[in-house]
UniProtKB/TrEMBL annotation:
PROSITE patterns: GNAT. It comes from the Bacteria. Coiled coil: none annotated. This is GNAT family N-acetyltransferase. Residues 3-165 form the N-acetyltransferase domain. It comes from Bianquea renquensis. The lineage of its organism: Bacteria, Bacillati, Bacillota, Clostridia, Eubacteriales. InterPro entries: Acyl_CoA_acyltransferase, GNAT_dom. GO terms for molecular function: acyltransferase activity, transferring groups other than amino-acyl groups.
Length: 170
């Protein structure tokens, strides 16, 4: 199989809905996504990403042989952080543990650093999400610390990790 990232297509809505209708994935993401995740919600997301400012939103489908199996995006921050982007991603559960997301993270970061003025890309996975932390570490991100009691999800107060990758500035 060939894995890559590419721009979203409206035809990805069915695969996106199938992947996100999984509590094992949703439990590792921020709140606000409906469950079950419908094709209508998926199409709304895809259309929003396709119409977003290309200098501020870098959103792609993660694909296996051109079929969407996940999502990856980085979002430029504002004000004094306007040269910083926050990274987020997920992958359909049947593809976990195969190195696919590490490849996607590296590909997206390379694209951003080669094509924008962004200096820093960060991610904040839940501290218990060892798989996501390993993805970031294998992609070259440095753990900058633990954000204690930084989130409230599913009735629990959770710690998060702060990971970052910075552009080499000379």
């Amino acid at each position: 199989m060939q894995y890559e990232i590419r721009k979203w297509r409206q035809s990805d809505a069915k695969a996106l809905a199938a992947a996100l209708s999984n509590m094992n994935i949703l439990n590792n993401l921020r709140d606000g996504l409906p469950y079950p995740y419908t094709e209508t919600a998926a199409l709304e997301y895809i259309n929003a990403m396709l119409s977003a400012d290309e200098h501020a939103t870098f959103a792609f489908a993660v694909t296996a042989d051109d079929e969407a199996i996940g999502s990856i995006g980085a979002f430029r921050q504002g004000n004094i952080h306007n040269r910083t982007a926050e990274l987020g991603y997920y992958l359909a559960e049947s593809y976990w543990g195969q190195g696919i997301m590490t490849h996607a993270v590296k590909e997206l970061c390379r694209y951003i650093f080669e094509n924008t003025d962004i200096l820093r890309i960060f991610a904040e996975p839940f501290a218990y999400n060892i798989g996501s932390c390993r993805v970031l570490e294998k992609a070259g991100f440095q753990c900058e610390g633990t954000l204690k009691s930084n989130a409230f999800k599913n009735g629990k107060v959770l710690d998060m990790k702060m990971y970052a990758l910075t552009r080499k500035v000379f």
